[in-house]
Structure formats: C-alpha cells, structure tokens
Hints:
The protein is of the alpha/beta class. Helices cover 43% and strands 15% of the residues. It is globular.
Amino acid sequence: MNADLEQAISFHDAIVAEGGKALVGYDTAKALANVVLMSEIPTSYDKREQRQVNAGNLLLRGVPGVGKTFFGVILAAISNAKFVRLQGRADLQPTEVVGFQMINPATGELMTEFGPLAEAEVILLDEINRIPLKSQSAFLEALQDRTITVGKTTFELPAFSFAIATMNPVELGQGTFPLSEAAADRFAIIVNVPYLSPADEERLVNFDFKHVHLKPLMSKERIIELRAVITREVFLHESLAKYIRRLVGATRPFNAETDWRTRSPSELVETCVDLGGSPRATICWGRLVKVWALLMHGRSEVYPEDVQALARYVLGHRVWLGPHAASHGVTVEMVIDDVVDRVPVP
C-alpha cells in the first residue's frame, strides 16, 4: 500500500484513541467525523489548482448533553487548528457571522470588521436550527465555496476549513428554524448521536475532565495533502460509480417540473418523498466512500458494502418526506433502506 495511505490509517487510529480521552463512547460517530475531515470534495471551480476546495462539513443531530460539541474541540486540538464556537440563537444577525463594513470616523476610510467565520479553521455551529433563515444563509457561501462576502468584497477562508453543525431533534417548536434544503445539502453527511450505552454512561460518573490533555497529531497542511492522496490512490471501479449514481437517482420521485422522468424502484419514494438526493450527494458519496474503505477497513479499493454502509449518512438529510409520510409511519431511514434493497448491486 502507498506509504501516504498507511500514514492516513495510522492517523485515523490515533484520532480515535486520542478522542477517547475527551469523549466517552461514540466510536462510530468519531470515526465518521474523521472520514469527513479527511475527504476532499470539490464543489466549486477554482482556476488555481493548488488550492484544495474541501466541503466535507459534518452535521450532528442529537439530544442535549451527549457530547456533540466535543467533536469540534477534538478535531481542532489534534490538528492544532483555530477553533471557534458560534452559539445559535434566534436573534443572531448575518453581520455577527461574516462581519461588516463601516466608515472609520477618525480617518474617513472604509474598514472591514470580520466575524468568527472568516478566521476559524474548525468552526462549530452549535444548535444551528436556532439560527433564523436569513442568518443561516450567511453560512451557505462559506460552506460551499470556502469564501465569504462582506460588503462588495469577497474574502477566502483559510485553506484548512472545516465546519461542524449540531442540532437538537427534540426542540422543533419554539425558537427553532428547520434547516432549508439548500443549507442541509451543504453538509457531506449527517450523524445521529444517541444516548450512550449504560456501560459507557457509567464511566462518566467518575470521569475526570481536568486530566484530559489532547495533543496535536498532524499538521493542517499534511491533512490537506493526505486528502488529495486518498482521492487519487484509492480505487473506485466505474461500475460502483454508476451504482452510487443509481442509488441517489432512486431517491427521487417522478417529477415533470424538475424534468426527472424516471420512476424509482421504491414505492416508498414515489408515494412519500417530495425531494430526493441532489447531484452534490453523488459527489460527496464518491469521495467519502474512498476514505471510508481506507480508514475503516484498511483497503485501497472500494467494495459495494462500503457504498451501502454510507447510505444513511449521505442521504439522511437529503431525502425530504411529504407531510403524509408521518401518517403512514414512514421514516427517512425506511426509505433509504428500501432504496438500497431494491437497486441491484453490480
């Protein structure tokens, strides 16, 4: 195996071990967070080929107190990156996110005051569903193109830029704003963070956070290099690329308005889904599955089971059910599993 790929595997194992010092349990969720961190997902055109455009943002959904915030803290610590936490609230203004321009009364010149999004290398958007839609839109450019626009000027974010958003599935009423389809689609995967197992939760009773010391494991620059190596060196067969495309397409119901005139093999999709996976889902899946095969199974080749293993994470926030689905007891997970069962494996 390529020496760089072996280093990526060793880095992953070290992250899981180091992260275990601060966050008890959630081994799968921690592994998935690292898969997203190590994924290189191009989403915009850049004439300067040396710039790595990475849109591997992570969306965490879970009840309060399960440790979602620690994901950002851990990933920032192991890469020695600048960490910023932005707390979601109903009165958050876009200028508090990206910044603003004003006239300096002393000099009469236009000055720019940047918000936390401009300088953060790892940013945690805590309780993103408490942020009103006009402020949610302030994140879209940054999550997509790794740039922000303040006034009439566009500024680039740091080369190493990674966003984690958390949301509470219980608080769906007062003071919350559901993520728009466009905002949700900017995140590579969604991970549901459940309650700990009884054994892991028992460890928290005497867990001493004062003795937790996380050490940097790899430089930000090296992480960016390894992303490109994984994309280039891990093999994804053309038949599996077509398989990913068919899976994403099978989540879309027939809709003449969007010119999608193919019927899904899943009856649940045709009767209960309003909006299926986007082309961005296809892009993300093709890159994420390479990292998954390498880090989780130590392989430099993708197998069909790797593609299937990521289905719920890639599609869970991109399949939007119609209002009648709940009355029939249909969930997003049921739709995704039905699609995976019905699309033939190459």
